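Q: Here's a chain of 299 amino acids. Please give me its 3D structure as tokens.
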Amino acid sequence: MKSAIAGGLRFLRDNLVDLATVAVALYFLIKGQITGFSSKDVPALLSVVVGLIGLNSLELFIDRQVRLRKITTTVERTNSSTDGVAVGIVALQQQVRTLGLSVSALRLGASATQLLVERPEVPRERIMHAEKIYWSGVTLRSSLRQQLHDLNIAISHGADVRILIIDPCKVRLKDELTFREDVKYEYIDAILKSTELNLQLLASGLQQGSSFHLGLHRVLPSYGMLILDPDDSDGVCYVELYHPEKSRQTTFVVHATADAAWFRFFVDQFDATLRRSEVYRISTTLDVENAVKRGAPDA
């Protein structure tokens, strides 16, 4: 019953002007048929006609304003929904790209040679909470992939991360590495591509405004090193001495306090190597791609 009354009221509100026009027209039509009109009724009839025209014009104006507001609201809602969908699509595309990089890196990592692996045993908590991370090696392919999550956490906390690998653009370095490791040239390319993809994965996980530095060696390093917090008394440096015979490669650790002289030596060596290298600030995956493509020309 209440819904019927409410529906009737809405109908009356929406059609009030039309009902009034019909009622007035019927009144004068019936009156004209019963009593007729004289010449003195003409002004009154004209006034009624003009009034009805004005009333209908007012209704059209009000209806147009109401409809325009509804259309504007609908368009704004549609635009808002479209913007939301667009943002969702961009986020999805980024996730798909990240997944693609992960798959490509894993595929190359599985198919490439297991040589050229630097794997210092470093506590994950130490990396995640480090304020400065200096990392130098030949390719860092496997060790970098294992530490991507920890490095991202460190960078999100404001850590200064600097990574040094060989310059992929230097054919001379790749030729020397091919000879030293006794592997095919295509293997070296695959390993460096895997490293590039891992660096892109690291860049893809960066928060807005975060970055790390990528340096490219001009010569093959004879040892790799990972330095954590070089300016602190509890700093530590993991060193791996390279050797053509894998069984004779050696890894050792020096501490900022207990081994102060050696610790400072390796920190200074890293700084000197960084100054001689091409260094790029990395904040996006495109920065990695541009850095490894640009590199430095062969001397």
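Q: Can you summarize the key feature?
A: Residues 270 and 279 are 13 Å apart (CA to CA).
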